[in-house]
Amino acid sequence: MAEIEAEIRSSPFAHLDETGWPEDGLPRWGWVAATPTATRFLIAPTRSRAEVDALLGGSYMGHVVSDFLGVYTEDVTRAHQFCWAHLIREAKRVAEVDPRPRTEEFRDRLVAIYRRALVAQATQDEGMKHGVRVALGILAADRRLSRHPEVARLQRRIDLEFHALLAFLDYPDLPADNNHAEREIRSLVLTRKISGGTRSPRGSDTVSTWASIYRTLRKQDIPLAPYIRQMQSSYHLGTPPPSIFARN
């Protein structure tokens, strides 16, 4: 696990997400930190910054890609990229629940800005990036749209997290959404549905450890069965376990 943690903590960005997890009938939280090369799961008793620190370490220097959970938005010590997919989904939900000109206009303008932002990121055109920032600022400050309370709530979110929403503009490889973490944590959700959770902290550690190894091996295109055989052989020979990373 130390090898996986070191890989994630050296990455320029890490996706984080969390989901509920029962342990002996008590509510716990399953966390994930994921990069293109590694995945680390953690089952913990709380949904707090302590778990973020446990996954990333206290001195992580990359961007944290996440949704708008308070544990992320209240952490001003790290660089963030907040998820545009979550923001757009909320705007679409507001327009579907209350289809009015204001809600639909907000949704449509937000989606259009996001599409232009992706082009600006890909081309690194400074004029286009500036235009995206201006357009998003105007949308967040549009008082006519803010007469709708739900639109006003999303405008406040944009205003508060303006720079963290647009961090990806200056980094060609930084994702603007948290879809990767959502895909990775789906395997933990499926395990929870099948097993009903775990019975003890030791069981939770076992699940999170092997889920981390399995998902990381998949990213490294390393088959699970041969890797387990190498681990067993190393254990009996008293030699270091095989690296989980193909490049090593």
Describe the structure.
By secondary structure, the protein is an alpha/beta fold. It folds into 2 domains: 138 residues, Nucleotidyltransferase, domain 5 (2-Layer Sandwich); 87 residues, no CATH class. Helices cover 56% and strands 14% of the residues. The chain is built from 11 helices and 5 strands, in the order H-E-E-E-H-E-H-E-H-H-H-H-H-H-H-H. A 5-stranded mixed beta sheet has the order 3-2-1-4-5, sandwiched between helices. Strand 2 and strand 3 form a beta hairpin. Helix 4 packs antiparallel against helix 5, helix 5 packs antiparallel against helix 6 and helix 6 packs across helix 7. It starts with a helix and ends in an 11-residue tail after the last helix. The model has no long low-confidence stretch (mean pLDDT 95).
Q: Which CATH-level-2 architecture of the largest domain?
A: 2-Layer Sandwich
Number of domains: 2
Residue stretches low in confidence (pLDDT < 50, at least 5 long) are: none
Nearest-integer average pLDDT: 95
Derived from helix and strand composition plus strand pairing, the structural class reads: alpha/beta
As laid out across the biggest beta sheet, the strand order is 3-2-1-4-5
Determine the CATH topology of the largest domain.
Nucleotidyltransferase, domain 5
Q: Helical proportion?
A: 55-70%
Instruction: Quickly name the level 1 CATH class of the largest domain.
Output: Alpha Beta
Radius of gyration equals 21 Å
Number of strands: 5
Number of helices: 11
The geometry reads as elongated
Listing every helix as H and every strand as E from the N terminus to the C terminus, the arrangement reads HEEEHEHEHHHHHHHH
Distance between the termini: 15 Å
